[in-house]
From TrEMBL, chains A, B:
<dbReference type="Pfam" id="PF00107">
    <property type="entry name" value="ADH_zinc_N"/>
</dbReference>
<dbReference type="InterPro" id="IPR013149">
    <property type="entry name" value="ADH-like_C"/>
</dbReference>
<dbReference type="Pfam" id="PF16884">
    <property type="entry name" value="ADH_N_2"/>
</dbReference>
<dbReference type="InterPro" id="IPR036291">
    <property type="entry name" value="NAD(P)-bd_dom_sf"/>
</dbReference>
<dbReference type="InterPro" id="IPR041694">
    <property type="entry name" value="ADH_N_2"/>
</dbReference>
<dbReference type="InterPro" id="IPR011032">
    <property type="entry name" value="GroES-like_sf"/>
</dbReference>
<dbReference type="GO" id="GO:0032440">
    <property type="term" value="F:2-alkenal reductase [NAD(P)H] activity"/>
</dbReference>
<keyword id="KW-0560">Oxidoreductase</keyword>
<feature type="domain" description="Enoyl reductase (ER)">
    <location>
        <begin position="18"/>
        <end position="331"/>
    </location>
</feature>
<protein>
    <submittedName>
        <fullName>2-alkenal reductase</fullName>
        <ecNumber>1.3.1.74</ecNumber>
    </submittedName>
</protein>
<feature type="region of interest" description="Disordered">
    <location>
        <begin position="1"/>
        <end position="20"/>
    </location>
</feature>
<dbReference type="InterPro" id="IPR020843">
    <property type="entry name" value="ER"/>
</dbReference>
<dbReference type="InterPro" id="IPR045010">
    <property type="entry name" value="MDR_fam"/>
</dbReference>
């Protein structure tokens, strides 16, 4: 019987995850039942939010059980179909497993059209991260022409889209990122008006203040912690803060503390709002259409950082916390049609 | 020439203000010019926000200068009028001075109708604090029937109105306050469903959780600090936090720190918003009408805590930070018509 490999949660991490928290196991390849398809993974996504699922705590995504395979967004190829909607060879995307093959209900998959561009984009700029950046910026941060917008982790999969959407809305955009290569990409290729390398800055608040002489009207926050502390005092009257992620805190073992932030909201009448892309399911198509159009018009650029080989998936995940990726972090698992 | 007395800012407090920060001076009674009136103060208001004006820092209200008289909401009687709109004997309210007499532009005053109720209410339930509670609750916290709403400093001038407005909106209302007398007032007279004496509670979060078995849908925050920390983990999906004040932090000499709060907003998609009643100037009449009607229908109760004598105004102010007042804290300065 044919086999496949899966990554399972070996143990829950304390603080920063390590390879020891992951177990690579070989299992029988599952068989699709009626209405199901067997999908061969081409690309697997690794995302910061997965850190939360490794914890034994109820949050917006269910915690993973130790010993079980972990979920991941994947782009794959249908290799066996017992469903009317899909044929062998179709490219699909969905939330399946950290696995080389997985069975999925046809209802849980979306078709991917390989003629529109690289299929991997269905996990990045044209997938969950891109759509997160799109709605988080337009719906929550809500920039107007001439306003100043700050995006943290601006060179990541979500931040790079969020920042460009702000630029396309006519705002002045300032990004933070952790390497000179990222800073150059933001300002030279993505059209950010300024970018700050937080790793090379002694006084973050002064650096943000210098890059935002008119204060901050909207802040798209992917990281939390000291970068957010630096942006906070600069919030203008009626500012909006879209809280998308807090990656700087995900590996903390104790309740993270920092300067209290609510007094500033009174003075500035600012609104701070958390959001989840899952709440925008019904408007997914609208975002995809806009983002595709922007890409075709060369108004929206993206990058992918691809780690080759399924066996390296944990390293790709761990690299997210080191800030190694520019753009979307992917694991290439297999070629189409092989 | 007739004289009058004023309280002036003698020095800026470090941490908790003391009587040494205030100076009582006797000056010539000012003369109204054309379009102005001379007002004799009947009641003077003391409010937590005044602490911010004692600092040498730009905030939503201008800092006071050392040596200058301080501003305060007052209800007073016109004793000399050089304006068409007001006659001698009229009762008015406005933002004048910590003073027994002050001159004001007629434009800066609102008439108070003594037949509608005690004139002091123009500084409390039918003035700035009441209107703050009204709009903060309806416009920012936005409760729905059946929801759970928490109000901190619920026995204060703002919180007591905010909580009753939530009850009138059909929500279940839980208040926090610092004495058994306040707790009894909240539950027995104001119709709160539960009230927590935070000074008698070892585990605030457990106490709030017990009082809010279905979590917290809206939180009207007057205090910040540990009480807010206790409410935060209980915020439900789509919860709203109206940030009105942070009195527990106003006397801090260093940047206050506490648990970081933004991660919770992602999971709960909660919205946290600061507001200032000054932004509702154009809707002031609408609030007054509703609040008056609620009082007449016995649906809205209030209390005033009156300190007698202008010379005691600083003590009335300092008592705000000790949580001494139930309801609106006032200073009675003079009788009408004397």
């Amino acid at each position: 019987m044919a086999e496949t490999r899966q990554w399972r949660l070996a143990s829950r991490p304390t603080g920063e995850p390590t390879r020891e928290n992951f177990d690579l196991v070989t299992v029988d390849r599952p068989e699709p039942g009626p209405g199901e398809v067997l999908v061969k993974t081409l690309y697997q996504s690794v995302d910061p939010y997965m850190r939360g699922r490794m914890r034994d705590e109820e949050s917006y995504a269910e915690p993973w059980d130790v010993g079980d395979p972990m979920q991941a967004g994947i782009v794959g190829e249908v290799v066996q179909s017992e469903a009317d909607d899909f044929d062998e060879g179709d490219v699909v995307t969905g939330n399946l497993l950290w696995a080389e093959h997985a069975v999925a209900d046809a209802d849980e998959l979306r078709p991917v059209n390989p003629e529109l561009g690289p299929v991997s984009t269905a996990l990045g700029v044209l997938g969950m991260p891109g759509i997160t950046g799109y709605f988080g910026m337009l719906d929550v941060a809500d920039p107007s022409p001439g306003e100043t917008v700050v995006v943290s982790a601006a060179a990541g999969a979500v931040g790079s889209v969020a920042g460009q959407i702000a630029r396309l809305s006519g705002a002045r955009v300032v990004g933070t990122a952790g390497s000179e290569e990222k800073i150059d990409w933001l300002t030279d290729e993505l059209g950010f008006d300024a970018a700050i390398n937080y790793k090379e800055t002694d006084d973050l608040e002064a650096a943000v203040a210098e890059a935002c002489p008119d204060g901050v009207d909207a802040y798209f926050d992917n990281v939390g912690g000291p970068i957010t502390d630096a942006v906070w005092p600069l919030l203008n009257v009626d500012a909006r803060v879209a809280v998308c992620g807090q990656i700087s805190l995900y590996n903390e073992t104790e309740v993270p503390t920092g300067p209290r932030k609510l007094s500033k909201l009174i003075e500035s009448r600012a609104r701070v709002e958390g959001f989840l892309v899952g709440d925008y399911q019904s408007r997914w198509g609208e975002a995809l259409e806009s983002l595709s159009e922007f890409i075709q018009q060369d108004d929206l650029h993206y990058r992918e950082n691809v780690v080759d080989g399924f066996e390296n998936a944990p390293d790709a995940f761990l690299g997210l916390f080191e800030g190694e990726n520019i753009g979307k972090q992917l694991v290439k698992v297999a070629e189409r049609g092989e």
